[in-house]
Design a protein that fits this description.
Strand content: under 5%
Number of helices: 11
Order of helices and strands: HHHHHHHHHHH
Shape: globular
Structural class: mainly alpha
Distance between the termini: 31 Å
Oligomer: single chain
Number of strands: 0
Number of domains: 1
Protein backbone atom coordinates (compact mmCIF):
# COMPACT_ATOMS: atom_id res chain seq x y z
CA UNK A 1 0.00 0.00 0.00
CA UNK A 2 1.08 3.59 -0.52
CA UNK A 3 -0.79 5.47 2.23
CA UNK A 4 1.34 8.16 3.87
CA UNK A 5 1.47 8.44 7.63
CA UNK A 6 -1.51 10.09 9.25
CA UNK A 7 -1.16 13.46 10.93
CA UNK A 8 -3.31 15.05 13.57
CA UNK A 9 -6.09 17.30 12.33
CA UNK A 10 -9.73 17.55 11.45
CA UNK A 11 -11.71 14.33 10.86
CA UNK A 12 -11.60 12.92 7.34
CA UNK A 13 -14.87 13.31 5.42
CA UNK A 14 -16.96 10.41 4.17
CA UNK A 15 -15.82 11.16 0.61
CA UNK A 16 -12.21 11.28 1.76
CA UNK A 17 -12.54 7.90 3.47
CA UNK A 18 -14.25 6.38 0.45
CA UNK A 19 -11.61 7.68 -1.94
CA UNK A 20 -8.75 6.43 0.23
CA UNK A 21 -10.29 2.97 0.37
CA UNK A 22 -10.82 2.85 -3.40
CA UNK A 23 -7.43 4.15 -4.52
CA UNK A 24 -5.40 2.24 -1.92
CA UNK A 25 -6.67 -1.16 -3.07
CA UNK A 26 -4.18 -3.84 -4.13
CA UNK A 27 -5.33 -3.79 -7.75
CA UNK A 28 -4.92 -0.06 -8.41
CA UNK A 29 -1.36 0.02 -9.76
CA UNK A 30 -2.16 -2.81 -12.16
CA UNK A 31 -5.36 -1.08 -13.24
CA UNK A 32 -3.49 2.15 -13.97
CA UNK A 33 -0.86 0.31 -16.01
CA UNK A 34 -3.55 -1.57 -17.93
CA UNK A 35 -5.50 1.62 -18.69
CA UNK A 36 -2.46 3.49 -19.97
CA UNK A 37 -0.95 0.51 -21.79
CA UNK A 38 2.20 0.18 -19.69
CA UNK A 39 3.77 -3.28 -19.80
CA UNK A 40 1.01 -4.75 -21.97
CA UNK A 41 1.74 -7.66 -24.32
CA UNK A 42 2.02 -6.76 -28.03
CA UNK A 43 -1.48 -7.97 -28.83
CA UNK A 44 -3.15 -5.83 -26.13
CA UNK A 45 -4.18 -2.20 -26.45
CA UNK A 46 -4.58 0.55 -23.83
CA UNK A 47 -7.95 2.16 -23.23
CA UNK A 48 -8.75 4.95 -25.68
CA UNK A 49 -9.14 7.28 -22.71
CA UNK A 50 -5.40 7.00 -22.14
CA UNK A 51 -5.07 9.64 -24.88
CA UNK A 52 -7.45 12.07 -23.15
CA UNK A 53 -4.83 14.26 -21.51
CA UNK A 54 -2.02 13.60 -24.00
CA UNK A 55 -3.56 14.08 -27.44
CA UNK A 56 -1.82 16.94 -29.30
CA UNK A 57 0.17 17.84 -26.21
CA UNK A 58 -2.80 18.31 -23.89
CA UNK A 59 -5.61 20.83 -23.55
CA UNK A 60 -3.77 23.05 -21.08
CA UNK A 61 -0.62 23.71 -23.07
CA UNK A 62 0.02 27.46 -23.09
CA UNK A 63 -0.79 28.13 -26.72
CA UNK A 64 -4.29 26.60 -26.52
CA UNK A 65 -5.22 26.74 -22.81
CA UNK A 66 -7.57 29.66 -23.44
CA UNK A 67 -9.73 28.19 -26.20
CA UNK A 68 -11.42 24.97 -27.29
CA UNK A 69 -9.65 23.17 -30.15
CA UNK A 70 -10.63 20.31 -32.44
CA UNK A 71 -8.07 18.15 -30.61
CA UNK A 72 -9.85 18.88 -27.32
CA UNK A 73 -13.13 17.62 -28.73
CA UNK A 74 -11.54 14.44 -30.10
CA UNK A 75 -9.84 13.90 -26.73
CA UNK A 76 -13.16 14.20 -24.90
CA UNK A 77 -14.70 11.61 -27.21
CA UNK A 78 -11.97 9.11 -26.28
CA UNK A 79 -13.89 8.90 -22.98
CA UNK A 80 -16.86 7.21 -24.67
CA UNK A 81 -19.08 10.25 -25.20
CA UNK A 82 -20.29 11.99 -28.34
CA UNK A 83 -20.70 15.73 -28.82
CA UNK A 84 -23.32 16.94 -31.34
CA UNK A 85 -21.72 18.36 -34.48
CA UNK A 86 -23.50 21.71 -34.21
CA UNK A 87 -22.09 22.24 -30.73
CA UNK A 88 -18.61 21.26 -31.87
CA UNK A 89 -18.79 23.90 -34.58
CA UNK A 90 -20.13 26.47 -32.14
CA UNK A 91 -17.25 25.80 -29.74
CA UNK A 92 -14.69 25.99 -32.54
CA UNK A 93 -16.04 28.84 -34.65
CA UNK A 94 -19.10 30.37 -33.00
CA UNK A 95 -20.26 32.49 -30.07
CA UNK A 96 -20.06 29.56 -27.66
CA UNK A 97 -16.34 29.30 -28.31
CA UNK A 98 -15.92 33.01 -27.60
CA UNK A 99 -17.87 32.74 -24.33
CA UNK A 100 -15.81 29.75 -23.24
CA UNK A 101 -12.58 31.53 -24.11
CA UNK A 102 -13.55 34.46 -21.88
CA UNK A 103 -14.25 32.11 -18.99
CA UNK A 104 -11.16 29.96 -19.57
CA UNK A 105 -9.02 33.07 -19.34
CA UNK A 106 -10.19 33.42 -15.73
CA UNK A 107 -9.64 29.77 -14.73
CA UNK A 108 -6.09 29.15 -13.49
CA UNK A 109 -4.01 26.64 -15.44
CA UNK A 110 -1.16 24.51 -14.18
CA UNK A 111 -2.38 24.34 -10.58
CA UNK A 112 -3.65 21.36 -8.62
CA UNK A 113 -7.06 21.27 -7.00
CA UNK A 114 -5.31 20.47 -3.72
CA UNK A 115 -3.40 23.76 -3.88
CA UNK A 116 -6.11 26.34 -4.65
CA UNK A 117 -8.70 28.13 -2.58
CA UNK A 118 -12.17 26.60 -2.56
CA UNK A 119 -13.50 29.74 -4.28
CA UNK A 120 -11.74 28.60 -7.47
CA UNK A 121 -14.30 25.81 -7.92
CA UNK A 122 -17.24 27.24 -5.96
CA UNK A 123 -20.65 28.16 -7.32
CA UNK A 124 -20.36 31.31 -9.41
CA UNK A 125 -16.65 30.88 -10.14
CA UNK A 126 -15.51 31.08 -13.79
CA UNK A 127 -15.13 27.29 -13.78
CA UNK A 128 -18.68 26.87 -12.52
CA UNK A 129 -19.97 29.39 -15.05
CA UNK A 130 -18.28 27.52 -17.88
CA UNK A 131 -19.77 24.23 -16.69
CA UNK A 132 -23.26 25.72 -16.46
CA UNK A 133 -22.90 27.34 -19.88
CA UNK A 134 -22.27 23.93 -21.41
CA UNK A 135 -24.48 21.80 -19.18
CA UNK A 136 -27.65 23.89 -18.94
CA UNK A 137 -27.60 26.62 -21.55
CA UNK A 138 -26.40 24.36 -24.35
CA UNK A 139 -27.75 21.04 -23.10
CA UNK A 140 -24.52 19.02 -23.14
CA UNK A 141 -25.27 17.38 -19.80
CA UNK A 142 -23.13 17.14 -16.69
CA UNK A 143 -20.85 14.32 -17.86
CA UNK A 144 -19.69 15.83 -21.17
CA UNK A 145 -19.51 19.35 -19.77
CA UNK A 146 -17.23 18.16 -16.99
CA UNK A 147 -15.03 16.20 -19.39
CA UNK A 148 -14.52 19.22 -21.65
CA UNK A 149 -13.40 21.32 -18.69
CA UNK A 150 -11.22 18.50 -17.32
CA UNK A 151 -9.43 18.40 -20.68
CA UNK A 152 -8.71 22.13 -20.44
CA UNK A 153 -7.71 22.11 -16.75
CA UNK A 154 -6.66 18.52 -15.91
CA UNK A 155 -4.95 19.37 -12.63
CA UNK A 156 -7.83 21.47 -11.35
CA UNK A 157 -11.09 19.93 -12.59
CA UNK A 158 -11.95 16.22 -12.43
CA UNK A 159 -13.40 13.81 -14.95
CA UNK A 160 -16.69 12.71 -13.40
CA UNK A 161 -19.16 10.26 -14.92
CA UNK A 162 -21.90 7.87 -13.86
CA UNK A 163 -19.48 5.10 -12.83
CA UNK A 164 -17.39 7.39 -10.61
CA UNK A 165 -20.52 9.02 -9.19
CA UNK A 166 -21.91 5.58 -8.34
CA UNK A 167 -18.65 4.56 -6.67
CA UNK A 168 -18.44 7.72 -4.58
CA UNK A 169 -22.05 7.88 -3.43
CA UNK A 170 -23.04 11.07 -5.28
CA UNK A 171 -21.38 13.71 -3.08
CA UNK A 172 -22.72 17.21 -3.74
CA UNK A 173 -21.43 19.66 -4.77
CA UNK A 174 -18.78 17.36 -6.22
CA UNK A 175 -16.00 19.84 -7.02
CA UNK A 176 -16.13 21.41 -3.56
CA UNK A 177 -16.42 18.03 -1.83
CA UNK A 178 -13.41 16.74 -3.75
CA UNK A 179 -11.47 19.92 -3.01
CA UNK A 180 -12.10 19.43 0.71
CA UNK A 181 -11.09 15.76 0.54
CA UNK A 182 -7.83 16.64 -1.22
CA UNK A 183 -6.94 19.06 1.56
CA UNK A 184 -7.72 16.76 4.48
CA UNK A 185 -5.02 15.19 6.63
CA UNK A 186 -2.42 17.66 5.38
CA UNK A 187 -3.02 16.68 1.73
CA UNK A 188 -2.38 12.95 2.25
CA UNK A 189 -4.83 11.87 -0.46
CA UNK A 190 -3.12 14.09 -3.03
CA UNK A 191 0.26 12.64 -2.08
CA UNK A 192 -1.11 9.11 -2.26
CA UNK A 193 -2.29 9.73 -5.82
CA UNK A 194 1.12 11.05 -6.83
CA UNK A 195 2.75 7.98 -5.25
CA UNK A 196 0.43 5.74 -7.26
CA UNK A 197 1.36 7.61 -10.44
CA UNK A 198 5.01 6.94 -9.77
CA UNK A 199 4.44 3.29 -8.83
CA UNK A 200 2.56 2.69 -12.09
CA UNK A 201 5.29 4.43 -14.14
CA UNK A 202 2.85 7.00 -15.49
CA UNK A 203 4.17 10.28 -16.91
CA UNK A 204 3.83 13.44 -14.84
CA UNK A 205 1.36 14.74 -17.44
CA UNK A 206 -1.21 12.43 -15.81
CA UNK A 207 -2.61 14.60 -13.03
CA UNK A 208 -3.42 13.44 -9.52
CA UNK A 209 -7.10 13.94 -10.33
CA UNK A 210 -6.82 11.74 -13.39
CA UNK A 211 -5.06 9.02 -11.39
CA UNK A 212 -7.99 9.19 -8.98
CA UNK A 213 -10.59 9.04 -11.74
CA UNK A 214 -8.99 6.08 -13.53
CA UNK A 215 -8.40 4.14 -10.30
CA UNK A 216 -12.00 4.59 -9.15
CA UNK A 217 -13.48 3.97 -12.61
CA UNK A 218 -11.48 0.82 -13.29
CA UNK A 219 -12.21 -0.66 -9.87
CA UNK A 220 -15.92 0.08 -9.84
CA UNK A 221 -16.37 -0.94 -13.48
CA UNK A 222 -14.76 -4.30 -12.70
CA UNK A 223 -17.43 -4.93 -10.06
CA UNK A 224 -20.09 -4.62 -12.79
CA UNK A 225 -22.31 -2.24 -10.86
CA UNK A 226 -25.51 -1.02 -12.52
CA UNK A 227 -24.71 2.70 -12.28
CA UNK A 228 -27.10 5.39 -13.38
Amino acid sequence: MFSPAKTAGAPVSLLGKRLRALVDAERVVGDLRRYYGIGLPPDAAPFTGSRFEHLAGGGDRPETAGRITAEDLIAVETLSVSIPVELKLDMLEGPLGDELADLLSAIPAGVDLAHVDAATVADGSPADQAWRLLESQHGLGWVISGKILARKRPQLLPVYDTVVRCALGRPRPFWLSLHAAMGEDDGSLHRLLLDLRQAADLPETVSALRVCDVAVWMGHRALDHACR
